[in-house]
Every structure is written in structure tokens, then in C-alpha cells.
Amino acid sequence: MSRTVVVTGMGVVSPLGNGVEAFGRRMLAGESGIRGLRGSLVPEGFPVPYGGVVERGDLPMPRVFAEGGRVPDCHRFGVVAVEEALASVPEGLPVDAVAWGTAEAINYELVEASFRDRGPLDPEAVHWREGRPESSLDAVARALELRGHGSPPAEARIAVSSACASGNQAVGIVLQRIRSGRWKRAVAGGVDARLLPANLMSFHLLSALITEDCPPERASRPFSVDRRGFVRSEGAAALVLEDLEEAERRGAEILGVVRGYAHTTDAFHATEGREDCEAVVRAMAGAIADAGLRPTAIDAVSAHGTSTPLNDRLESKALKLLFGEAAWRTPVTALKSQLGHTTVAAGAIEAVSCLLMLREQVLAPTLNYREDEIDPQCDLDYVPNRARPAALRRILSNSLGFGGHNTCLVFEKVP
């Protein structure tokens, strides 16, 4: 018997706000979390001028790291998001597994690069003492254990590294395992804290990032005729997914339903999508079919919407192929216009945004969309510049990653 899978907890760390309520308030207000980097996180004259930066001033230090010492941002961001999500789960209640989007390896030179002071390499600071978490996934598992939720076995600690699709795929993996009866309750999410000169330069060399001179809040402009590239960002998000019967048994608040999921690969190119959009269309159609629905049942789309010329054109084309004439009547919103591209964490953060839009019955805006001049290949309803009240039952969320990963989720409002 296939089980219904629901979300009972959420947590987020993002340039748009830390904590679900602050994040949601700023998202629906159409604010931007993007700022200038030169002279602070990168040198003056660095070719990449903008980024989505997490405000660390109000970010707690989780008890996983209570013994002190420097903590990598990827560990801290992830655990803060998970602990917020777990606030809805009574301490001591078992959590069977965690699926976690991450780009890190257990490489201490890379860990050192994530420290904000960027001081000289200190082996004592880099090599964790015995018992300290060695990866963000390990840190999340330790946080579960400290709250009395148990320690998931090795086979139930799943690191997902499928580029920009990772957070979306982590949710999809948990959906499938709970549906099958293997798990009753699990954490899914992802983290990316690589807003560093070396990582920025890597994307810059791919000509993926915007470098033109403009106000930071104007830099990310998905689907707009004047889009020039994406804005690199950082953040984390976590969701608690449960079998509906288990959630109802403990009287949990149901935040939304995860109805469908699908994953395809382009098998085409490391960074570019296929012109025929075949695999993207199959991923979207597959998620909708997995939900037992038809495309006409989708009320809005949370687009991958990176603000690159290629992605936005191909994603718009794929939506037209999927929806046909209904594509022009289906609102499409792009959260990356507000906070930039958190890459590995993006699908998880956008899952939170979908659930908030369903709760509030308001579509978040796609900022910086030029309404006076429209790209004829990006001519759908992108909810331009202002939030919009809407009757929302189901949202399709797209994540399209480097390597040709295409993952899609269908979220549904609580009946």
C-alpha cells in the first residue's frame, strides 16, 4: 500500500532570512537578499561583484558544537535548519533517516577554506578532535542523536550530490522510502556554504555569473530579456517528512503533502541543457503522473529560474511543451530572483517556499522582470515584480542541475 507523505517540520537559513517565518515574510514582501561582495568577502576588483550572503549575527550555535572551536559554515547552517525543522517533533521520537544534499568531501583543506577568517592553515583547528562531526551530514545525524531521535544507521544516512538538483532529490528519496514503508519519519534537505573566491571564480570561468555593474538587488533577473547570469548564494533548508498516519497519531500539524516526484538525466552535456528539452519535460510529467494527476491540476510552477540566458529559455520551452496552451495561464515564479542560486541547497529552500505559498495562498514574485520589453522565448506569466494572491492547491517545483540532472516535486496544500 502506498502511503501519503506529509511535511511536519521546516527550517531554513538563507540570504532572505534565517528561520521560516522571517524567510517567508521577506519572500512574499518581494525583498532581496543579494548584496555586494567586493571589499568584504572578495577583494576589490574581483570579477564577481554580487552574492546572496547569510546574516550570521542572529544565527545560533547548535549544541552539537558546544565544545567550542571554529565550525565550518556548511555544518552550522545545516544543523540550524534541521533543529528548526525538528522543533515540531517531540524529543525522543525516532527519526529513521536523513537524506542530505551536500557538495563537500571530508577534505580538511576544503573545510578550512570555509572558515570566514581565512587565517593560516592550523592543523589543530582543521582536524577535528575525536567525536566531532566530520561532514555536514554527520553533524545533522549527531543533532538527531542529541535530541533523542536516535542515530540513523549508515545505510539510512544518504548524501545526495547531484549539483543544483540535490535538495530536491533528497526530498524525493525520502518520499519514496516512506511511501514504501521502509521509513516512517525522516529529515530531507541540503546545504551549500561555498560563497568563496575559488568557487565564485569556477562559476565565473563557465561564464555563468553576472558581472555587469548594477545595484545588487537588480542582479538576479530570471526570464527577463536583460538577464545576464546567476548570482551565487549560500544557505540551507530542512524538512521533516512523515507517513500521514504516524503524523496524525501524534497530533502533528500538517504543513503540506508531498504528492509526486521524478528524476531524469539529459545524458548530453556537463553544463548545458538539451535543446529538445525532452528529459526536462519527462521529469515534470513524471512527477505529475507520480502524484496521480494531469498537468491541468497544477496551479503554479516554482521554476529553476537561474537568470542565465540558456536555462531560462529552455525551461520556458519545456513548460510550453508540457502544458501546451495552458502554459500561458499557469503562473511561474522564480525564487532565485530574490536570494540568488544556493545550488546544492536550492531545491530544499524552494520546497520551503512552495509550502509557504500554499499556506498563505500567495505567489512570491519574480523580481526584476522587465515588463516593457519581453523576450519572445520567455513570454509566460512569471508573476513579475509583485506578489500575487492566488487559489493554490498544487505547485510543481523544478530543479535542473549541472550534469543533466532534472528533478521535480509536486507539493499539495493540506486539504
Structural features, described:
With 415 residues, the chain is of the alpha/beta class. It folds into 2 domains: 5-249, Peroxisomal Thiolase, Chain A, domain 1 (3-Layer(aba) Sandwich), CATH 3.40.47; 261-412, Peroxisomal Thiolase, Chain A, domain 1. The chain contains 12 helices and 15 strands. It has helices at 20-28, 73-86, 108-113, 123-126, 136-146, 166-180, 197-205, 244-249, 278-290, 309-323, 336-339, 346-360; strands at residues 5-14, 17-18, 34-36, 50-52, 97-101, 157-160, 185-192, 235-243, 256-265, 300-302, 332-333, 362-363, 388-389, 394-401, 405-412. Strands 1, 2, 5, 6, 7, 8, 9, 10, 11, 14 and 15 form an 11-stranded mixed β-sheet that branches. Helix 6 (166-180) packs across helix 12 (346-360).
What is the end-to-end distance?
21 Å
What oligomeric state best describes the polypeptide chains here? single chain
Which geometry do the CA atoms define? globular
CATH superfamily name of the largest domain? Thiolase/Chalcone synthase
Which consecutive residue ranges, at least 5 long each, have pLDDT under 50? 105-131
Structural class determined from secondary elements: alpha/beta
- The H-and-E topology, N to C, reads as EEHEEHEHHHEHEHEHEHEHEHHEEEE
* CATH class designation of the largest domain: Alpha Beta
Question: Radius of gyration, Cα only, in angstroms?
Answer: 20 Å
Tell me the fraction of residues in β-strands, as a range: 15-25%
